[in-house]
Amino acid sequence: MTITTAEVETRAMRHAIALSAWGHGTTSPNPPVGCVVLDGDGRLVGQGWHRRKGEPHAEAYALAQAGSAADGGTAVVTLEPCCHHGRTPPCHRALIEAGIARVVIAVLDPTSRGRGGAALLREAGIDVVEGLLVEEAHLVLGPWLAALEWQRPVLTWGCCLPRQGSLTGDGTVLPGEIDTLVHDDTSTIMTTAIERPVVRTLSTLPHDPHQALTALQHEGARTVGLAVGGAAIRPYLDAGLIDHIEAHSPHETAHLPHLPDEYRLTRLSRLNDGLRLSLTRNNANTI
């Protein structure tokens, strides 16, 4: 059975999306990006993902692995190649110099300065395709894109629901892709993050929630976990700044406190020690 070029590139993009997830929680303020290089016959000859700010981008890793096999090949990348000099050279130039003939992109980069990387690649005579598996690429890029649009980090609250008494913050239920953990002195701050996130105590941030998130944004945070309980969380809820809630319910009689109507239950899982509840603000479909 012959596999078409479209099928090869779709498979390669899914692989690139999976690679990009390895950068979750470590690349901020940069986006987590994955790249696959195919040779002229459609065989995978290079792959890579961006690991952290200041280190090579996904395209650079993939091209280095591919070597001369990249000449005349295809680069499949989850985000439009960059076109500006920062701590690393522009990726569109590296693709041109490697002799890449075709570039397949999932998501266009909203931070492109002037003409974007896709336009510059076309000007160099490279065939460029945009929009392959956009929704699937958003599984990884969604929080970064949302943080850009909202000009603040995506905020997830981790909490534990006691049988009685006040809520406590719980970092153990926060998603592994957070890059910054904010806690109070009474919360469990161990997280599921593969690499330890930046840790801040709530008392070191401005009291106003909007100002606190602005400060975190300026520091490079894009996905923040709040392990905060009691009255400390209420200003963030009242301001509509909590995008996601991850809650651990160890008792069958425990229940969530009253939340604004804009939150909906998106997942309910049985654990060895209780239930895991996931809630999302209705206009926060980013993770």
Automatic annotation (TrEMBL):
Pathway: Cofactor biosynthesis; riboflavin biosynthesis; 5-amino-6-(D-ribitylamino)uracil from GTP: step 2/4. It is an enzyme of class 3 (hydrolase). SUPFAM superfamilies: Cytidine deaminase-like (SSF53927). InterPro entries: APOBEC/CMP_deaminase_Zn-bd, CMP_dCMP_dom, Cytidine_deaminase-like, Eubact_RibD. Coiled coil: none annotated. Its EC number is 3.5.4.26. Keywords: Metal-binding, Zinc. Residues 7-128 form the CMP/dCMP-type deaminase domain. GO terms for molecular function: diaminohydroxyphosphoribosylaminopyrimidine deaminase activity; zinc ion binding. The keyword Zinc applies. GO terms for biological process: riboflavin biosynthetic process. The keyword Aminoacyl-tRNA synthetase does not apply. Pfam families: dCMP_cyt_deam_1. PANTHER family: CYTOSINE DEAMINASE FAMILY MEMBER (PTHR11079), RIBOFLAVIN BIOSYNTHESIS PROTEIN PYRD, CHLOROPLASTIC (PTHR11079:SF162). This is diaminohydroxyphosphoribosylaminopyrimidine deaminase. It comes from Actinopolyspora alba.
